[in-house]
Structure formats: C-alpha cells, structure tokens
Amino acid sequence: MDPRIAEGLSRFESISLDALNRRAAMLERLDRKYIVPAARLRPALDALREGFDVLEIGGRRAFTYATRYFDDADQRAYYDHHQGRRKRCKVRVRNYVDAGFTYLEVKLKDKRDVTVKKRLRLAGPLEVLDEACTRFIDRCHAELYGAPFARLLSPVIAMRYERITLVARQGGERMTIDTRLDFATDGQAREVPPELSIVETKSARGNGAADAVLRGLHLHPTRRCSKYCIGMAALGQVERANRFLPALRRLCLAGPTMLPLAAASLNAA
C-alpha cells in the first residue's frame, strides 16, 4: 500500500465485516468510479475520516482479491458494456484471499441503472463453471430479465488487486479503494502503476457523501471504468476498445502493448 494512503487510513476508526454488512451490504446500488493518484487521495481520506469507518479484519485494512472473469465466445459481457447497453450481465468467481472466502458473483443492471449483485458461496476458486453455477446464473438472469442466461461461458482474464473498504457511519454508503491492480492471460500481464487507485463510491442514489468530498477536491468520475473491460482491452483480448481509452490512458495502460486477441490462460488468479 502506498505510504500516503496507509498513513491516512491509520486515523480511521475500524469496523468489522459483520458490522459493515449490517450497516451497508450494498448489493443493490448506483456506482461511481474515479481514478485517483495517491497524492490526491490522501486529502480525500482526511476529509472522509469524520463520517466513515474502515473495514478491518485480523489487524489488516487492505485485502487481496483474486478474480476470474467469464464470457461467451462472442464476448457479450464486454461488448454489451462497450455499447452502453442497459441490460447486461457479468459473471466472475472472486476469491477473497485474506478472508478465505470464494463466491460466484453475477452483476446485472436494472431499469434504473442500479447495479444488482447476486452471490453464491463456493468451496474454493473454480476454473470451469459447474452445473450448480450455471443454474445460479440462469436464475439470477431470469429473476431480473425474465429469461435464463443460456450462454456458454469460459474463463477469459484474471485480475488481482488490494481493496480498502470505507463505510459511512450513517449507513447506506460505501467507498472502495482498489490499488496494485494487475491483469493476466496466458503469457502476458499488465499492471497499473501502484500510485494509482480506482476509487468506487456505492450509494442508493449515486451521489453520496463520498462523492461530495471527491467533487470538492475537483476529482470527477471516470466514465466506462469497468475493471473487467479495462483488463480485456489492456491485454488485447478485444477488437474494439475506443470507449475505454480515456480510462486506459489515465491508468497508464494504453499503448502498443494493446495487441489484438492474445491466447488466454488464467493461472494468475
């Protein structure tokens, strides 16, 4: 963790995972993403300290997430996002490394543009989705969109990062700070410079106290900043990425290494 962020976090009161989930589970929310250098994140932390607590488990305040994303042969999850479709679905298996939990997670968008996340606890990380996973994905998709998912999924990229989670003392709002991001397929990987973070605010209306603090420091949301889509583009797994270029540039991931369609193997997760 960048020492400027670590020092800022040291002044926060802590909250346990159980207490955080009681206060703000946030499985349905509006999200805003910001790309923020550590030097500009530090004053934001100072401003947030009075209204937010930081998740702490076993004395740790930053936690490693290892995620494997799945898509179909047409890369519908990627291109639905690239085209800005309101009705879209992402599927991932996320290993909460430090906590020892693994979940299948299905992220969907409802008619209000609210993110709806459904989770299924797994025994451990999966490289191939089994029948129970497929049934769960179909059910989640049918509950929101009226039809089963009905697409064959395979792993496409893996990513790892460290996450810090802040939760508002008044409840109903979270802010996450993702640092040390790296993306991988077979034989290639890309890393975001460690001084850059993807900050995500999660609130009922998408305009919470954390957004107000960031706005007051002249930090503004970065549109089209899906980590999955950024990783796919940065690793050259897609033919079109123009709508993600602003985020890629800000994360120092745009450039000649964005080559088309490399072979994928996901041992990095």
By secondary-structure content and strand pairing, the structural class works out as: alpha+beta
Average predicted local confidence, pLDDT: 88
Total helical segments: 8
Total individual domains: 1
Unreliable parts:
258-269
Overall, the morphology is: globular
Number of DSSP-assigned strands: 11
Q: Architecture, according to CATH?
A: Beta Barrel
CATH domain fold name: Hypothetical Protein Pfu-838710-001
Strand order of the largest sheet: 2-7-6-5-4-8-9-11
Beta-strand content estimate: 25-35%
- N-C termini distance: 20 Å
Helix and strand arrangement:
Layout: H1 3-9, E1 14-15, H2 17-24, E2 28-37, H3 38-48, E3 52-55, E4 63-71, H4 76-82, E5 89-96, E6 101-109, E7 115-122, H5 131-145, E8 154-168, E9 173-185, E10 188-191, E11 196-203, H6 209-216, H7 227-234, H8 245-250
Parallel strand pairs: 1-3
Antiparallel strand pairs: 2-7, 2-11, 3-8, 4-5, 4-8, 5-6, 6-7, 8-9, 9-10, 9-11
Helix pairs in contact: 1-3
Protein model, in words:
This protein is an alpha+beta fold and 269 residues long. The chain has one domain: Hypothetical Protein Pfu-838710-001. Helices cover 26% and strands 33% of the residues. Strands 2-7-6-5-4-8-9-11 form an eight-stranded antiparallel barrel, surrounded by six helices. Strand 9 and strand 10 form a beta hairpin. Helix 1 runs parallel beside helix 3. The two termini are 20 Å apart. The C terminus is likely disordered.
